[in-house]
Protein 1
Amino acid sequence: MSYHKPVLLEESVDGLNIQPSGIYVDVTFGGGGHSREILSRLGPQGKLFAFDQDKDALVNKIDDERFTLINENFRFIKRFLRFYGVKKVDGILGDFGVSSHQFDVAERGFSTRFESKLDMRMNQQSSLSAFEVVNNYEEKQLKAVLFNYGELRNAPKIARTIVTARKEGEIATSERLKEILQPFLPMGKEHKILAQIYQAIRIEVNQEIEALKEFLLQTEGLLKPGGRLSLISYHSLEDRLVKRYIRSGLFEGEPEKDFYGNISVPFQKVGKMIVPSSEEIKRNNRARSARLRIAERLA
């Protein structure tokens, strides 16, 4: 199975500040690129746990006694690490993009390039698919998905158009959906807008925002003091959550101050946000929107 070299590979693994005998977690295993790089820096006593809810990722499992691959969503990180007797770790890496494999396999329905059934499930056992969202969500729900996750100003019109079109028959394929969306795809901007619509549906199908929040809230309790978070986001919704959580341990609002005006926060950011170099973007166009943020758990 072919996977591209992960985006910001060296930078994200450098961000973990790996201790050879430490315990690390790669919460988005995919093709295993990050995991292989982490293992190359661990000593014989080190341990690496990886998560991936997509069964397709299991074929990339690494044959190394220091490595354990868990076929689950990273929103359950604490529960499954506890099952393996792990309560504290030295570092957690997350690369929240859709994997190259998921984009490149037409029948998974993630890419706007292929004709496919409306699917977009990262966990293929999940009952909620893009088909369900497009065909069964009420107009109000669809509008909220498109506005909140696709950041589309004309979400009400798009939702109304989809709901009207499906009265004539179910919308089962990406080609049929594109046909219906044609009035909203002006020449020169069609790919960008279609990508926003697909992103919105995909985030809803996979509960990506809820999963990210649940995951982030568990990292404070999992990381040892001095432990590192190294997180790559690909759109502003994710990056905003990561940035705010690192800054204040909250997703909105400001942390409370004590009597003396001091605030207690769980993390300290390490360096500035890192973006891919122009050379990396040339090699892999999907890297262009990547944002890496690194943080250290305070004592």
Protein 2
Amino acid sequence: MINSYINVVGAGLAGCEAAYQIAKRGIPVRLYEMKPHKKSPAHHTDKFAELVCSNSLKAQRTSSAAGLLKEEMRQLDSLLLKCADKCMVPAGGALAVDRDIFASLVTDAIRSMDNIEIISEEVETIPTDALTVIATGPLTSDALCADVVKMMGGSLSFFDAAAPIVTAESIDPETSFAQSRYDKGDGDDYINCPLNKEEYELFYKELVGAERAPLHDFDVADPKVYEGCMPIEVMAQRGEDTIRFGPMKPVGLRDPRTGHRPWACLQLRRENAEGTMYNLVGFQTNLKFPEQKRVFGLIPALKNAEFVRYGVMHRNTFIDSPRVLNSDYSAKCRDNLFFAGQLTGVEGYMESASSGLMAGINAAYKLMGKDTLTLPPDTMIGALSRYITDVSVTKFQPMGASFGLLPELENRSRDKKIRGEQYASRARESLHHFITERMNEK
């Protein structure tokens, strides 16, 4: 017998989105969250939907894969995007948020819903009393992780990293300048920290030779590092120019002191609404804390930088979704069990939230006796869920939003921007038709 409530385990981005989608359909939710009694190694506050690695939710424009994903989520009434819109900070063409305000808004919204009961305790085994959504994230607690692994017949893992944050007042104004790349945004969305050739070569030499923090909290026999969050020091080892053409690329920038493009440049993105803290964009790291201060201090604009938070590295765990999940995020081995978030192998804040959104809708539909849904393959949400559950994928690794996941266009433009608009237009029409035909719940 299926009880008339649904369990959601985990109040991160995916869990909160799932709980909201279920509760708004009039179904009681029991939301389990182990905070404040216990926190993962990467979390610091008692709030829900805590952003760990970065405060950026990626590009806004719908002609980008990340922007299209967010537009689809808006059409499906995403709670997280409504909260994000209320606490945006300037970030050029990206949607970045004040992470503390964002978490507070999500927490307040979830707590204010009458049919969501919040249970502050650690869940050590997969619940069997009701339909359940597991959304415990990439740092699922050891006991529950062991139960998931037992049920799913194994798990995978990779290592993720977060970038440091510095105070705005400690950034040297004489050796930095405010500008968005290609002058996108309001002109001062980013603080740029330029380096000339000599400064860059010294920085590079010290970076690749710096001492790294031990990963003694995790099993590091054969760690896999996810490309999208690769530590800057690991990336630098690939070659002297690798980071100069990556996170430190100077393209689209002009140093007003010289009138020319810098040899290399670190960009700092506003971390909070007040503009008192800035994030080192692309500088995820596992260097020891004193080494971060020493090496990053070789960048002229950061010579006296005050670090609010140092970068950290942590293990992310995900299940082998192509073997164990259906495209509606339900488990193949148990039809009243759903998974959501980075535990499924979707990579990125909004990707995680989108999976929670769909898992929540489908759990609700399941309880109501309706057919569960997988969005069309030409939508970003639909393509992503199909990819992570594609049995032909043999070497499964986390995947974020990408136009490469979508079916080919019939009249594909050679112009990248126009091509993005074509993908977006097709997806927009497809999703509108799907919502009208399949999701009209009135």
Protein 3
Amino acid sequence: MSVFTPVTEVRLAAWLNHYSVGTLGALEPIESGIENTNYFVTTSQGRYVLTLFERLPAAELPFYLELMAHLARHGIPCPAPIADLSNRYLSELNGKPATLVTRLAGASLADPAAADCAELGALLARMHLAGRSYGAYLENPRGLKWWRRAAAEVRSFLDAGQAALLDAELGFQTQHRFADLPRGAVHADLFRDNALFVAGHISGVFDFYFAGVDCFVYDLAVCANDWCLAHPDRDRRLDEAKTRALLGAYHARRPLEAAERDAWPVMLRAAAFRFWLSRLHDMHLPRPGELVKVHDPEHFRGILALRAAPGVSAPWFR
């Protein structure tokens, strides 16, 4: 369970008096997540998710919350922030910035099939298209600037092989920037556990707190490296059928440009590097918390090694 800031029912009930959501019925810590404190909240009027932000800068939070509200208004099945009685999405609870959003129905998939990847591709294209009218700007908070800083902070913890891979990939990514690719607001963390399904269809996507402005095809690469593996635990190669389903469904709604196809192998490496580096950072430089869940960096080190291997082609759609 990832809980950094405990919240009691008594304290939450008092906080909810500033909202028009009814009286508190139940409070349940959420097991997943490594960045924020999250609880399921049930009231007399509905089901919600409470998030206390642990290390995101307060100045960035409106970008995420307004993006979620914007996408929800445009028919994207994502959490809708709840405004308090002062018409604010963001307030304070136990000394931390906090927000309340709607809770989505459904369950995540441990091992999605090609049809599920197609569902994701179609929804991701809709998200990117809807986000084009979102006017706020925030550079990807886990982009190149953060990579450089985080790499310097974790390097002393690595063995010679890990350090060599870190240095080589950071140098490669520094030389391969794509300023002219289509860009906009991206989720940047849409793993399997951040999407919910009901009866074979996506019923919701959530956890937008790594969102920012970046290349759309990078967002696709993040998804492919988690959803399209030959086997989530045993085989980190990209499954061709799953990858083609993801890309084909996306392309049917937002046609991909030739330059995006050319950048695809580099973006797969960038997406793998980002999560290997962030997991290294969380493992070696943890912060205090109650029963904090830390993901194994080795999973994405293996993915990065495969994506960067000479002569390995990345599946595309015909």
